[in-house]
Specification:
By secondary structure, the chain is an alpha+beta fold. About 25% of the residues lie in helices and about 30% in strands. The chain contains 3 helices and 14 strands. Strand 7 and strand 8 form a beta hairpin.
Length: about 210
């Protein structure tokens, strides 16, 4: 009897523990719907990081791809983004359209854990997507411009005629932009720093004059 109770406890616990890994489930967003609950896998290619189970993108230019020699026949590529401190910039010249929440099921927990693991303070989490046009080749090159450091990028391929999502990125194939735009100090901070330096220079001058 005790063994049965233990098994009844263990099964839901195992399910809950596995939830963060379930990120290739498909959620509808904007005008896009799911062709099936778990579409084929899309990769954001970078350097694997076992500590956060995602890929580090050390450059603003990277590639996304699907396993095998796939023919896309005019399917569109969408880049999903989750930013820890405000979503800025563009990918392949296309600005992000904002989303109230991240569209992939099970992904937000992994995203937040990755920010924590990499030391990013997520004070203003924002989400969005950009349709960068026809997928064409496989892999395809993506260039991020003005996108903040720590932004996590996923990729999806959709059929433009039906709006169905055909391919999707799971957590383990997502990319964290490490070579993104650093946060620029606000004008007030720059003024304060300048005032402090000017005061320090004056103090040094007075000490030299006394000698």
């Amino acid at each position: 009897m005790r063994a049965v109770k233990f098994m009844l406890f263990l099964v839901p616990l195992t399910f809950i523990a596995s939830m963060p890994a379930v990120a290739d489930t498909c959620n509808a967003f904007a005008t896009y719907t799911c062709s099936k609950s778990t579409p084929d896998v899309m990769h954001v290619n970078g350097t694997p990081n076992g500590a956060i189970n995602m890929n580090i993108l050390t450059s603003n230019t990277f590639t996304v791809s699907v396993n095998g020699n796939k023919a896309f026949a005019g399917d569109d590529l969408i880049i999903l983004a989750a930013a820890p401190n405000g979503l800025t910039g563009s990918v392949n010249g296309v600005n992000f359209t904002s989303l109230s929440s991240f569209p992939e099921g099970g992904a937000l927990g992994a995203i937040q854990a990755s920010w924590t693991g990499l030391g990013f303070s997520a004070n203003n989490q924002q989400f969005g997507y950009a349709n960068v046009g026809v997928m064409g080749s496989n892999p395809i090159t993506i260039t991020a411009s003005g996108v903040g450091q720590g932004t996590i990028l996923y990729a999806e391929v959709v059929n433009p005629e039906t709006g169905k999502i055909l391919y999707i990125t799971p957590n383990s194939e997502a990319g964290v932009l490490d070579g993104g735009t650093s946060v620029t100090p606000e004008p007030a901070s720059l003024t304060l720093m300048g005032t402090g330096l000017a005061g320090l220079a004056g103090l040094i001058r007075r000490k030299i004059a006394k000698k």
